[in-house]
Amino acid sequence: MRIVFVNIYMVETGNKEWVLIDAGLYGSAGKIKRMAESLFGPNNPPKAIILTHGHFDHVGALKELIRTWKVQVYAHFFEMPYLTGHSSYPPPDPSVGGGLMSTLSFLYPKKPIQLGGYVHALSKEGHLPHMPDWISIHTPGHAPGHISLFRGRDKLLIAGDAFVTTKQESATSVMLQKKEICGPPKYFTTNWVSAALSVKKLRDLKPEIVASGHGQPMSGEELHAGLDRLVNNFQELAIPKHGRYVNEPARTNKYGLQYVPAERTSKILLFTVFAISAVVMFNIVRKAKR
Length: 290
Ligand SMILES: [Zn+2]
Ligand SMILES: [Zn+2]
What we know:
By secondary structure, the chain is an alpha/beta fold. It has helices at about 30-40, 55-60, 60-70, 100-105, 170-175, 190-205, 220-230, 235, 265-290, and strands at about 1-5, 5, 10-15, 15-20, 50, 75, 120, 135-140, 145-150, 155-160, 210, 220, 250-255, 255-260. The chain has a 5-stranded mixed sheet with strand order 3-4-5-6-7, with no helix packed on it. β8 and β9 form a beta hairpin. One zinc ion binds near residues 53, 142 and 143.
């Protein structure tokens, strides 16, 4: 289900048991609960909630859902600092271009949420609780502990934001849900080398169906061709021409954010102001000398 501009997924794991993948935007808990009830019947909460990552648009309804369902939440070990109140995410970069969703990204929340005892780290082996047919794949770059979920039987991939199926930087593309295999949303991606490796890792699984965090599901030839094109031209198609994290990634570890590169836009602005002031001063001094 799409919630304004982000997707959530409900995976039936057999016998009317199910797992929720991601938790949408703040205020969407009612919509999520109604969908769950229509698919799986009343008083049938999910066995678990699994997060592809903890960005604000993937965890918004989490607190309310936990209150109602008393359900356990799972995420990658490296995502834990942002889900337990210990660290903010690296700041989004509104200078990456591509449209209004990027420009407005300075407004997007980056503060951690605090899920307390309800959140647990996934096993390192890729096992997913209550999802025996699936494996989790660490796909960092967009977020340090980003995961994608893969079911080998039918090669179904829930990609999260490792790559997406609409141009998420552009409000028009998002509104029309225009289908296109794109790299991870640029404004929130803080390690482009990891992001490139993650997309390649997912392409090499040769998925048949992809459901990503943003955009419509895609399958078959349209998917294969789009994914090959993205992997083979990642630099031109996915990495922004300029931006805070293009030449240097944000550095994170198990404690959360450790270092962010300086904001490029303000440096450019400072340099421009400095250059203009220098020219003006030079002219004033020259006129004064005459
Ligand atoms: Zn994200
Ligand atoms: Zn997202």
